[in-house]
């Protein structure tokens, strides 16, 4: 069984100054994936990235809260992380195994940080890693447009680090 993992869909990243590319479409995709996961009885995990005390994303900051556009129903596991890799210094791997998950479907933000590092780590930890091609995003950087960052990571990660699947084609 695969669990759904949604990374850092929090107020400060989704509604901050640098809006994510295709942000509204991403929210719709994630809500659809959560519906599919619930229908299949697959667990849903949501990560919130927090920073040190005194930072804008310190523990308890409203900027770290999951955006209200995601339709949570109370059965999801929400956890905090402090590193880009959602497995680092968290109990995510143990929690996935405790829920019977042998695979993890990776979505959320930001493509070049948390999505990338979590994809790379998942397979190393023995999970079948699936990246939803249209289920992650980021914002433009001074060097590259977000659309190109997403395309680059989809191409780079597919194969060595994960299986790339479009949201409409994924079945839990």
From TrEMBL:
An annotated Gene Ontology molecular function: hydrolase activity
Keywords, sorted A to Z: Hydrolase
Record-linked InterPro entries: Isochorismatase-like_dom, Isochorismatase-like_hydrls, Isochorismatase-like_sf
Isochorismatase-like domain residues: 3-140
Xref: CDD domains: nicotinamidase_related
PANTHER family named among the record's database cross-references: PEROXYUREIDOACRYLATE/UREIDOACRYLATE AMIDOHYDROLASE-RELATED
Protein name in UniProt: Isochorismatase family protein
